Amino acid sequence: MTIVTILEYLTLLAGFYMAWNIGANDVANAMGTSVGSRALTLKKAVILAAILEFAGSVLVGGHVSETIQKGIVNPEIFQSTPMIFIIGMLGALIATGIWLNLASYLALPVSTTHAIVGAVLGFGMIIGGMDAVHWDEMGQIVLSWILSPLMSGIISYLLFNILQKKIFFALNPMQATRKLAPYLVFACITILTLSVLFQGLANLHLILSFPKALLFSLVIGLIAALLANFLLSRIPITAYEISAYSPHYEISLEKAIKHLQRIELSSSEEMHKEVSEIVQRVQMLSNRVKSHSEQQEHRNSPFSSVEKVFVYLQIMSACLVAFAHGANDVANAIGPVAGVLQVLQTQMVSQQSSIPFWLLIMGGAGIVLGLATWGWRVIETIGKKITELTPTRGFCAEFGAAATILLASKLGMPISTTHALVGAVLGVGLARGLQALNLKILREIVLSWIITIPICAILSILVFYALKAIFI
Which of 53, 125, 198, 440 is the most buried (most CB within 10 A)? Predict the structure, then answer.
């Protein structure tokens, strides 16, 4: 067996190991909120994610793979030493897989995109110096890491606020859900269909122009909305759906307390005592309303039927996130693999290379296997430990993350799916107030994000020198 053959097998094995770790760590982004809100059982989430992740990887995965493969390190630096490039990329895959494995064991949702970019950056700088890195490309990638949680958080925050005002503050929540849900179904189905039809089937050599893809997507979205409207119209509205209680009271009382506290601070000594007593009485009333709110979530309340409807909407949005995740993050595993295999075959480091269809299939299969065997660890963190999720909150988080990820995939930006989903969950949590967030878990997650790039860069360099001692 020649060295080239050994390196080919090692690269494929490292790529599959990387894909397995993406499934174990990152696919929690797609299904964690659904499991956390109890919209799906863990078993159903794994099956659903397997289908959608695989479809996203195979149908749309090629767009971002090219960025990871040749957009970070300048291939010209390695023209005279292609073996160095091969060893470096192989080391980057192994190093990233090791870090993701450790993070999954600790149940931390780290960014696989951060990890592979940090690893490629590490070996590139140690071999070629500062000139080996496409700093303009890196600037765009880093910017996308900042924009992704911001954008998904804003979308989720605004969407949840709309649901609060249009549904939870309505006198008849279920009737309001009937009116709004078909529009949400239309948006979900249209976005998912458009992502598949517009350049999404390029790997199958089926390409539609944007106007045609948009037209087909709108038609399919409209059909889905009409079907949703028909099914919702068959759900009876019972007497308890109309209630004197509204969550709006809780928010209004909190605002009243803040205004009264301002008056208390600036009032004269004569008024201070009276205002303090009013603040205390309003605070007691607010606590009673909050207690009633928590009980309503677990009883047969005006909102229980609404949450049941959003179980199905959340499953739909989970499919959207899973498809988007497969499309974006399969690149982290197969981008370096594609680069190494081409160099092994041609003995040249090229600026251009194609992503073989069978490699997309391998990456998708590795992601699915990782989710099925070890994905439950990070799913618990995303779904249960950041903030309390219900189907309505989970739907808002997933929709915001999916819209952000799909847009980035189409633009060829390797954004962090983890950042997008955690940003979306944060957006939903902030819509309910800062007290709804588990700040300790958030601190641990953010810290793991910060150390991912330097750790992977250092690991990549160490593995590179070990491989170099063996093969060169």
Answer: 53
